[in-house]
């Protein structure tokens, strides 16, 4: 099976261009508001728009591109003022023909005058680029109730280079041919038409699945060689064919507090609003600055992960030439190419707020940095450049010039680095002067030492502070989410993706809380694992400023879009009395991620005194400070499903099928012994679902009633024992969707009449899904001649038994990587249901 990377052509290096198009057709239009008006970008003309005719009807407009292209983004122009006819929610479809189109975008526009650009999906789930000729825009709702919906202007960008697009088209057509052939092969094999299946497989030269998966099919469905099946499970796991399932399984967080010190027994003091970065190659974590509740800090530390030792690099960087002074709410980024660290931003601390507002929270007028409730802006002049570079090898600092094109002195921003491209990206935050105005999106080219403004503030991503931003290095995209708006004092739960190549931003969540994500928050922290395609989020302060987010971390799987949110439970959640084994809720902390060991490191932060008073007092009296800073240091490992657990569950499926077949062919006592020993040992008896299913298997003995007689010495019991599988006693259960074998109703089994022929075992009370396994219908014509060559016995297998074995095989396929198995779905679903029967 070819990898997705084999299918990616060289066109990814081709620059996007504006693509010309014409309006092919539309659902309707109002007088004077013709569909062709969307070709004209005139925000001042109230008639320069396409407007639908009936607000109650379904609407669409179909565009035909001048050239075949690979789309990358679409831009919607607007009227110069808000308008009740403005389109709100919409969908975008593309296709090579107007009759067969695929949805690639579902989003919404804001009711303002700003143009909005959206990245368009132009790769399928296999990583293959696809071309298009037609675009359909489907307005779903407008901003004015009972108003006709309007689209003012549309612009499209993508790849139109003829050679590149032709390469994409050829690759895509080849992919479609292969995928259709795979569906045909799957359909034939499910329906026991093995002779034509093997002929097509041989002549087409295609490969339906990994050879180990084919061998598993032969041993389960055709040979019923159960012992060999279980041996193959280990080979399949070793080949990495279960890896995708491991990654998609829900992890559990395991926390451990780190109590290491330096040679003098010292470690970084309590603080919030500090900065951290990590050197994953040398396994160093760097920590600098922060606010301890009284003053800003300028101590600089390094933690050696291998040696488990802190090292104080500098107690006061302000005493070092060209080094930064005390600060908080700044950011650091480590450059792996040059082995250096970049520091940007600063909040001064000469004036500290002394008053508290309702609820013990400092009023907003006294809080320039909600990121840590840290010090106010000093009246002392702030340098024009708070930008530094630390050379790790030489232990030297360098003061860098921002110039007129870079951001003004800022704090509460976010900064990431693309080391391969040698570019820094900075977004958001507030200027440390004047009225704390929000900042936009900038990049800094390390080689040329030049700053560039990529996106001005609030266009298209609303400027914010206390937010999160991570870089996805594979797709070269920035994920920006949450934080607070300075103007509205609104805490956000949105997420935007900025595509670096096209300089476009797409809002993928306007409210991720409604998508089962975390509550709106700010000063939370986030790290990314590009290999697993996951973002981990922890902590933060909620919109009432008096509530901290739960200490449980969140996981966001960002592929495929729009992604899935999951709250990560900790291993200690079942033992809440051991609360000291997990970090407390906090905000303004710092997190870094070590990608090799896949370990999250957490340090410090701030907690509300309401929580702190329960644990800490000064001389027996509660602390008066409404906030308390932390000095604790933690590491978190996400424990995921192991290969042993997947092998165990697969073996359970295999032994279930073997037991069911034994019930119809062998003495009941021998089947019972197999159930009590071989099946029982692969059951997780701590899982109620597995235990209930295990007990229900006993009813098969009642359905296939055979006289119970003691086994003879040659009954083959030793052979059954030889298929024993060692299982770790601490194996945890896994939940698998669509495993129909794990949902048998024992009552329905008892109510099912015994089969008329043996072996014919099906799952009573559960309808077989056509997409997973075939029914015993007219298309199944009994044993295929090809089967006879693989049979270990002379006995023919019934259609029902064949279907049941196929279900067992396809249940195990749920664990197998998508590129190593037959395609999902059914060929029947590809047939149009609106067939003319006359």
UniProtKB/TrEMBL annotation:
Domain F5/8 type C: 1-159
Pfam families: Kelch_1, Kelch_KLHDC2_KLHL20_DRC7, Muskelin_N
Keywords annotated in UniProt: Kelch repeat, Repeat
CC terms in the record's Gene Ontology section: cytoplasm
Residues in coiled coil: none
Organism: Rhodocollybia butyracea
Name the record gives this protein: Muskelin N-terminus-domain-containing protein
Polar residues bias spans: 370-379
InterPro entries: CTLH_complex_component, FA58C, Galactose-bd-like_sf, Kelch-typ_b-propeller, Kelch_1, Muskelin_N
Residues covered by region (Disordered): 354-380, 707-727, 745-777
Lineage: Eukaryota, Fungi, Dikarya, Basidiomycota, Agaricomycotina
């Amino acid at each position: 099976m070819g990898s997705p990377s084999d299918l990616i052509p060289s066109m990814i290096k081709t620059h996007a261009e504006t693509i010309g198009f014409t309006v092919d057709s539309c659902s309707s239009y109002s007088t004077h508001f013709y569909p062709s008006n969307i070709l004209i970008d005139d925000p001042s003309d109230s008639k320069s728009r396409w407007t639908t005719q009936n607000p109650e009807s379904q609407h669409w407009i179909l565009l035909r591109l001048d050239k075949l292209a690979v789309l990358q983004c679409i831009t919607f122009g607007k009227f110069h003022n808000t308008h009740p006819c403005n389109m709100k929610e919409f969908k975008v479809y593309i296709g090579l023909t107007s009759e067969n189109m695929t949805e690639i975008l579902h989003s919404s526009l804001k009711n303002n005058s700003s143009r909005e650009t959206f990245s368009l999906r132009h790769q399928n789930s296999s990583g293959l680029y696809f071309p298009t000729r037609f675009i359909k825009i489907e307005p779903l709702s407008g901003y004015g109730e009972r108003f006709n919906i309007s689209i003012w202007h549309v612009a499209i960008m993508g790849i139109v280079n003829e050679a590149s697009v032709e390469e994409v088209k050829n690759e895509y057509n080849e992919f479609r041919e292969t995928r259709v052939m795979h569906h045909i092969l799957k359909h034939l094999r499910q329906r026991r038409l093995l002779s034509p299946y093997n002929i097509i497989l041989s002549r087409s030269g295609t490969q339906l699945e990994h050879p180990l998966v084919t061998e598993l099919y032969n041993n389960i469905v055709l040979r019923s060689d159960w012992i060999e099946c279980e041996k193959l499970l280990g080979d399949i796991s070793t080949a990495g064919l279960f890896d995708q399932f491991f990654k998609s399984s829900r992890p559990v967080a395991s926390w451990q507090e780190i109590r290491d010190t330096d040679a003098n027994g010292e470690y970084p003091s309590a603080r919030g609003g500090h900065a951290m970065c990590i050197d994953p190659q040398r396994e160093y974590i760097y920590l600098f600055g922060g606010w301890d509740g009284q003053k800003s800090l300028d101590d600089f530390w390094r933690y050696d992960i291998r040696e488990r030792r802190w090292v104080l690099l500098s107690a006061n960087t302000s005493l070092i030439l060209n080094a930064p002074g005390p600060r908080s709410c700044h950011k650091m980024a480590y450059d792996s190419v040059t082995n250096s660290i970049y520091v940007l931003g600063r909040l001064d601390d000469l004036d500290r707020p002394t008053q508290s507002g309702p609820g013990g929270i400092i009023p907003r007028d006294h809080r320039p940095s909600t990121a840590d409730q840290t010090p106010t802006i000093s009246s002392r002049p702030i340098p024009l450049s708070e930008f530094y570079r630390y050379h790790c090898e030489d232990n030297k600092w360098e003061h860098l010039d921002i110039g007129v094109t870079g951001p003004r002195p800022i704090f509460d921003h976010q900064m990431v680095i693309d080391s391969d491209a040698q570019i820094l990206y900075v977004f958001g935050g507030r200027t440390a002067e004047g009225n704390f105005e929000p900042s936009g999106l900038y990049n800094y080219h390390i080689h040329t030492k030049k700053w560039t403004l990529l996106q001005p503030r609030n266009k298209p991503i609303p400027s914010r502070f206390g937010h999160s931003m991570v870089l996805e290095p594979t797709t070269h995209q920035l994920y920006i989410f949450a934080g607070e708006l300075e103007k509205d004092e609104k805490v956000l739960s949105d997420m935007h993706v900025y595509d670096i190549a096209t300089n476009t931003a797409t809002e993928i969540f306007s409210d991720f809380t409604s998508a089962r994500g975390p509550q709106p928050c700010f000063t939370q922290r986030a790290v990314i694992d590009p290999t697993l395609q996951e973002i981990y989020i922890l902590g933060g302060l909620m919109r009432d400023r008096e509530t901290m987010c739960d200490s449980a971390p969140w996981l966001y799987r960002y592929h495929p879009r729009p992604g899935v949110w999951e709250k990560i439970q900790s291993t200690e959640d079942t033992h809440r009395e051991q609360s000291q084994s997990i970090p407390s809720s906090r905000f303004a902390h710092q997190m870094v991620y070590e990608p090799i060991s896949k370990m999250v490191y957490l340090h410090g932060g701030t907690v509300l005194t309401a929580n702190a008073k329960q644990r800490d007092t000064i001389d027996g009296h509660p602390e008066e400070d409404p906030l308390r800073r932390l000095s604790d240091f933690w590491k978190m490992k996400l424990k995921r499903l192991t290969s042993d657990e997947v092998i165990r569950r697969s073996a359970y499926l295999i032994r279930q099928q073997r037991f069911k077949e034994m019930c119809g062919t062998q003495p009941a006592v021998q089947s019972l012994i197999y159930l009590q020993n071989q099946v029982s040992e692969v059951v997780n008896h701590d899982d109620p679902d597995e235990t209930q299913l295990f007990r229900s298997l006993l009813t098969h003995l009642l359905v296939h009633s055979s006289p119970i007689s003691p086994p003879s010495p040659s009954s083959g019991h030793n052979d059954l024992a030889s298929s024993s599988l060692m299982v770790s006693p601490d194996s945890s259960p896994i939940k698998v969707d669509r495993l129909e074998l794990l949902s048998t109703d024992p009552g329905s089994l008892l109510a099912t009449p015994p089969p008329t022929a043996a072996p014919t075992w099906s799952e009573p009370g559960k309808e077989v899904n056509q997409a997973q396994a075939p029914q015993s219908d007219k298309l199944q014509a009994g044993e295929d001649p090809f089967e006879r060559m693989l049979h270990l016995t002379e006995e023919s297998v019934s259609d029902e038994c064949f279907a049941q074995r196929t279900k067992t095989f396809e249940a195990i396929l749920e664990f197998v990587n998508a590129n190593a198995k037959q395609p999902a779905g059914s060929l029947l679903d590809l047939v149009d249901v609106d067939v003319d029967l006359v």
